[in-house]
Specification:
By secondary structure, this protein is an alpha/beta fold. The chain is built from eight helices and seven strands; from the N terminus they run αβαβαβαββααβααβ. The chain starts with a helix and ends with a strand. The model is unreliable at 161-167 (pLDDT under 50).
Length: 235
């Protein structure tokens, strides 16, 4: 998800990126990653840097082939040095750690957390202002805007991020639909330097017919909203 999101972000007037990822590009990542077989074996941050610099050679790109947890342990105020921080890992424990860390260090910058449900039943983005970090932790613990019914959790990985999505049979076009749906919010935040007045959750509803065909039940939230709609809620 992160590499595909980056493909949208490089169209905006961002002049400095800092990319952090401990992984290398492997064969199983290629299915839905932005990059091809010629990049297998390279670190994901290096491949992403090449993409950015090829698009804009004057853009400054810092990279760390490291765990974000290790990075924050070694440099506690790291995330306060940027205008906007974006987390695309799909692992609740890491998201919670980052939120708790930002509270402890009194970070003053907004945070975006992005993930998708299995089979891309939904795409989720949380925009969190510094004053709402504690509230965001509580919402993530029991997230109310899933499209899959929670009884499905033992059958599928309920939450996905990064390249884990490559293991599930849905169209890459759906991932593009999700990122296209949230792109206008990035445009407002970055292109027009607009900061939302309140923390929000943006939920893109996936292809419900496809989900039902796969034998999974929809949550009440999923049933009450239409496929491919984007729902905006205040936190």
């Amino acid at each position: 998800v992160g590499s595909n999101l980056l493909n949208f972000l490089i169209k905006l007037p961002i002049k400095k990126f800092h990319l952090i990822d401990s992984d290398i590009l492997k064969l199983e990542n290629i299915f839905r990653h932005q990059y091809g077989f010629d990049k297998i074996g390279m670190t994901k941050v290096q491949v992403a840097k090449e993409k950015i610099v090829n698009k804009d050679p004057f853009c400054e790109v810092l990279t760390n082939n490291a765990s974000i947890v290790d990075m924050l342990i070694n440099e506690s105020t790291l995330l306060d040095g940027y205008d906007l921080n974006i987390v695309v890992v799909g692992i609740t424990m890491i998201e919670k750690y980052i939120l708790e860390h930002l509270i402890k260090t009194s970070c003053t910058k907004p945070l975006l957390i992005i993930w998708v449900e299995a089979f891309l039943a939904s795409g989720q983005m949380m925009y969190i202002k510094p004053d709402d970090l504690s509230k965001a932790i509580e919402i993530i613990k029991n997230f109310p805007f899933n499209v899959l019914k929670k009884s499905n959790e033992s059958e599928v990985y309920f939450k996905e991020g990064s390249c884990q999505t490559g293991f599930f049979p849905y169209s890459e076009a759906n991932l593009t639909l999700f990122l296209s749906a949230i792109y206008p919010y990035f445009f407002q935040l970055i292109q027009r330097n607009g900061i939302e007045s309140s923390s929000k959750v943006y939920t893109w509803i996936g292809d419900k017919e496809f989900i039902v065909e796969k034998g999974f039940e929809l949550s009440d939230f999923g049933i009450s909203n239409n496929s491919f709609d984007t729902i905006e809620k205040d936190i």
